[in-house]
Amino acid sequence: MTAVKTQIWLEPWDISRRINELGLRLDLLHNIVRQVIEAGEQATLHHAANAEGTYRYQEGVYALRKAFVGDKWEISRENSVETIKNDKLKIKVAFTNVDLACNHEHDPQPRSKKGEGAEKTCSGNTPLLPNETWAKYARPENGEWKTFYLMVDREGAAELSQPVVSEETFKSFIERIFLTDSAEYRHTSSGDDGTAVVFDPQISRK
Fold this sequence. Notes:
alpha+beta, 9 strands, two-stranded antiparallel sheet, seven-stranded mixed beta sheet, 24% helix, single chain, 4 helices
């Protein structure tokens, strides 16, 4: 099987088409990003240091399920990873906070380590080439379940992307769908003294 470069979708028409192919809706994904940012902005200096990231994660999981679970999508907690899944399309979608999204020069990395559960959940995304080439290449579709993550960074940039999980992080990507890096979603509120709290939550690894 021939390895291929990571596919990056960034033109509006390509993004809309690909999101539709995945059985999702672009407008609903944008709404989820807004909700995630607003949830994080509830954190103040009186909250625990990891509140901002935790609030975002909890809202991301909730909003994703609220928007899509129904006739085609259902809740899944296989391997102790919180996702939604579509049995017909064999697709799972999870949420994660990342360091930087929608950047051509940098693959997004999770703000909390990814454990064995995430690696198992993303096993259908496993690359074909050796470790040293993972940063640039991944294998074509293999007929197994595909797992995507809705990734939102601190500034509000977001992408829906299919990662390879290994060694507690994202090693490479099958594809990346750039949703938005718009200032509309940027973090604007602050803590009680005018200073926003930013801390990477360390949720128990799954």
